[in-house]
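Weekend entry, working from home. Most of the wet-lab plans are on hold until the incubator is repaired, so I used the time to fold the two sequences that have been sitting in the queue since the last round of cloning. Logging both here for the record. First:
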Amino acid sequence: MSTFQYRAYTRQGVVTSGTIVAEELDAAVEALYSAGLTPVETVLRADSRSHSTTSLIEPGNAGLLGRGSRRVGLKELSAFTTELASLVSSGIPVDASFRVLAGPGASPRRIALANGLLKDILAGLQLSEAMARRPEVFPPDYIAILAGGEAGGQTAQALMLIAEMLARRVEIRNKIRGSLVYPAILLLMSLMSIAVIIFVLIPNLTPIFSDSGLPLPGILAVLADLPDSWARLLLWCVLAAIAGWIACRRIVSDEQTMKRLDHLKCRLPVVGSLIQRREASQFARSAGSLVEARVPLMAALQTARSLVNNRYLSARYSEAISQVPEGKALSQVLGGSGLIPPAMIRLIAVGEETGQLAKMLVRVASSLESEVQGKIEQLVGLLTPLLTVGIGGLVGALILQVMSAVLSINNLAYQ
């Protein structure tokens, strides 16, 4: 048995210190957690030269708790939020919930994220404030809905709403990825076919024509130079990419230019409608979730408006909701702006009349999300035949050129 000296947080967030006897370091840490303490430092007292330290921030994991947590993906964040919401809804305190999430069997990323959040919670921060310090992990709408729920004393309910929102996003992403598998395979096979034509067939045909003093027919002459000039072509592509990156940085830094670009996106034939409906669903879900978490209506609307990514649409939402304090109904101002489809406006009006505005806003968001998902699936489904026709035509044209060159060899033999 060895004696370890420790410093740890109590359940009230007070730092305490003392000694504990255990067989090894891990057993000592486990005993501290079982006693309701969160270790900050645990040191083997018997030999100071060979001491080991463990805590919420281990020396080897210091980067993992901060920078490393940005590697948490959407699927893992959804599972993390679902488990956290279940624990908090069951009446377990937030700090104890994080200890459970960081328990045995959890992935290193989840342990790092849970321990980092727990450290901030014990330091006195609200859960939303602790998550706001990790913008690479938690999106703005996540933090806004949670902050509204905390303000209204509905943290568990806000977490459940966020968990449902993330689950829908994971479902949509998985469906889109599944639909893109076949087009990706088709594109890969076509690139391999073109590479065989350029690097195998054309080099074998080139000596026959060069010995006869004739150029390769058609586009084959251009493709024949690619194996010899690929380094120069790659250099030009890199320079073009760097120039494009610099131009994009300048454009992104100009607010007015970005607003005009966002306006242009909204006017595109098919994509514009999808963007407007997606932003409308984002606005409606955020506003509905915040109102359901007992956030005042104007504060909820302003927060939801700030989560609209499209700058042009964000300005229009801001102009619309500014009329609500003047006594106008939300359905009236949104209907007059044309930001939300008329059928959805009627649902919002019914919600205002029946006192169920929050639920109706969430229902509107669900309807719009389903509509956007269906449109995206249609576009992805249309992409497969378009790629098949386009790639088939390109590869077929190259093969015809090769066959034409092969057949013309007979004519060269008689010259």
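Second, folded right after the first finished:
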Amino acid sequence: MVGRPRSEVARKAILKAALDLCERDGYPNVTLKGVAAVAGVGRQTLYRWWPTKREVLLEAMTDLVGAEMQPPPVSGDAGADLVVFLRETFAVAHGVAGRVVVGLMADAQADPRFAEELRARLIGPRRQALRSVLERGALPADVDVELAVDLIFGAMWYRLLNRHAEVDERLAEEIAALVARLG
């Protein structure tokens, strides 16, 4: 191992500082210098662990939504499970997490390697969790699950990017009701 091992206290302080700065100043205005200052760590520590702000914020997001990566427990009512999943997902997306993910997605457009990392660590696990919920019986057998995942998350992304409407409980319920009408 090269250098000293990461301090978990410092790591958590850095991730919290990155999210706090993103919430306060917006994703484009977050800098590693600012994160280091707010976290109370040296910039070299930060640069050694994360060479860019997007990598810090991706780790912060995977820590923040780690517990939500799993689908909700099976209740026996596939439609109700879908509503629970979407409410939880949209609640996270509604706050600073939504702004971070939009910024990460924007960065991913110019960097195919980062795009793959974002898909592997954050987007892919969320897609798999939604797919799992839909496969409980929320969709008719003849509906393509991958297309349904795209449509559901597409509505969320469209609203996050255009900010023309909320990503909230109402959207979760409307999408679940629309999915139920497919059957």
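Plan for Monday: verify the second prediction. The first helix runs from residue 8 to 25.
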